[in-house]
Amino acid sequence: MLASALAMVCVGGCAAGGNPDGKGTDGASGPARSAAPSPVSFPSAPPDTAHCPGTVLDHRDISHPYLGPVRVFLIRRSGSGAPTGCVASVTGSGKALASVDVDIYENDLHFASPESDATENTFVLYNPGRYDGVLVLVPGKDGFEDVGWTDPEIHYRGGKHAFYNARLAGPGADGRYTIVQSQNSCNPSCAAGAISHLTLQWNGHEYLPAA
Q1: Do residues 43 and 50 make contact, with C-beta atoms less than 8 angstroms apart?
Q2: pLDDT at position 35, please?
Q3: What are phi and psi for residue 61, nearest 5 degrees?
Q4: Using CA atoms, how far apart are residues 67 and 80, in angstroms rounded to an integer?
Q5: pLDDT at residue 192, rounded to an integer
Q6: I need a surface site. Which of 17, 28, 116, 164 has the fewest CB within 10 A?
Q7: What is the rounded CA–CA span in Å between residue 128 and residue 107?
Q8: Cα–Cα distances in Å, from 25 out to 11, 34, 66, 137?
Q9: Rounded CA separation 59/78 (Å)
């Protein structure tokens, strides 16, 4: 008899939260709503405001520690002007972040695998036509930190977060990449110089020689 009485109370339909007053468990009218966030809908190419026109070579969706979901694009710029490559990024709201210029040969611009490590940095591999380089996208509150190219006309060597003639190693047991940079003594000449290797580790702000 109790079961029959309950069934009569629910004539007309009980809410998904089980309340007979037609409200969900969160107190709102109608069925209970899921707490899961809606998926982000990213564009297939960066907007014009990214100032990075060209062919999309690849993209990755990352979790930015300050901005949430961000899509990072690797672009081969259209036209013959330098720099030939570009890294553009867009937030989940569609806002274009400051792009990063990089010189590449043909389409030699790739993400590392995996593209990010335990530091939350994102790694892009490039080659301007001779040696490989590692470009590090370091998250900042407004996007990514300035790569810091030392020469405004050259976008493949001489950057705070860019390492030419270098490769990634790892990630290691700590979930982090290290950067191994090769150096030529050029003694007695660059063709006959000794090659040495320097391992760089993340210290929370930049990559410095391992202790």
Answers
A1: no
A2: 41
A3: -100, 125
A4: 34
A5: 77
A6: 28
A7: 10
A8: 19, 11, 32, 43
A9: 17
